[in-house]
Amino acid sequence: MTEHQVQTKYTREKICNILRSDLIAGKFNHDQPMREISLAKRFGVSRGPIRDAFLKLTQEGSLVYETNRGVRVHSAIADEERKIMMNMRLDLEKYCISKYIDEADQKDHGELEVLLEQFKSACLRDSLPAVAESDLALHRHWVTRVSKNLEPIWLGLAVRILMKYSRLENIEESIGEHERIVEAIVVKNKERALQALASNLI
Amino acid sequence: MTEHQVQTKYTREKICNILRSDLIAGKFNHDQPMREISLAKRFGVSRGPIRDAFLKLTQEGSLVYETNRGVRVHSAIADEERKIMMNMRLDLEKYCISKYIDEADQKDHGELEVLLEQFKSACLRDSLPAVAESDLALHRHWVTRVSKNLEPIWLGLAVRILMKYSRLENIEESIGEHERIVEAIVVKNKERALQALASNLI
DNA sequence: CAAATTGAAATTGTTGACAATTTCAATTTG
DNA sequence: CAAATTGAAATTGTCAACAATTTCAATTTG
User: What mean pLDDT value characterizes chain A?
Assistant: First the structure.
């Protein structure tokens, strides 16, 4: 169980990303308190970077903060709220993909293909945290490329939506949807891309 | 210029709220770096709580963070992005107000009236930070009352949208719009409330 | 003299110590 | 015996010191 290979130091960014995908993957229970000290030990850092990560995840909505009581995992969201968020996310990503198709160059397309491969590989390995992380990374690609302003809003939506439905079901379907999105983007077919996105996000 | 009255200690929450309304009010220039040390001195605390506030404001989008370079004020957003955000915010608040009308009790209505008065008072005082803060507080009321999950998403949108258009123009119009929203809510007229909201947010 | 290099000052990143608060089981009280 | 009280343990909040990094003006180099 111990790590024998050399591990680069964990920064607050890395810790935040790791905790986020763990949370999305359901590794912690809803309402479970997250303790600074135990996580500081786990990552081999002091409490400072852990607190930094907690703050970020709190703002994104996966954690809930209470004064002098620390943070706990957020409760599951209601179906109705999820629907509202899903619609907002769909609107946002439609805008981004449409613009991405206009603006992206060869290099972007290359990155896109890499991210798709990583997603497919995670699916085949059946690793829920890896699937969650690579799914996020793929969608994040076209959002970030189009607008740094929209990215944090998108992330907040995506994290909360994923937190509820993150079982390893319909993996085959999900792979197909993402393949269709990427393919349509590469051949610059907006209509097909937006349609594939909608079927992935509804 | 010095403070003579007793000032309760600044916590990261208070600092965050103060900086947010300052940012919305345009007290800092776009792309201007925010220094931890100078703000720590201003609030009479160590750098820790300032860093906490920076992280939160970064996630909300008013500040931009770069490794080893700290945070700076975000650049203004493009009109096109603002339109996307405005639509998302409108959808979100429509849902919240509609649900708020169903669920709110007498006490909620009382708070609503208080917040409206504070907004009007800030407008009459011509204080841009106070206007920005009380405008946010009013809208936040019906969002938070309906869903703790949607609140941080809403805040991210509201902060970014306000950052661009926060001059003291059309104050009379804005007062009237907010009065119409609150009045329609109190008499539980959804149609009128949503219509008033739309004219406020478009 | 333009471009590269150096180094001190400024700034951010991380840590461990201590203060303040909360929690919860053991004890006291009516 | 139920309810209130106490106090130690656990946990979060804040701080000041030090490490690592960036910045930028002064110096060197071709």
Answer: 89
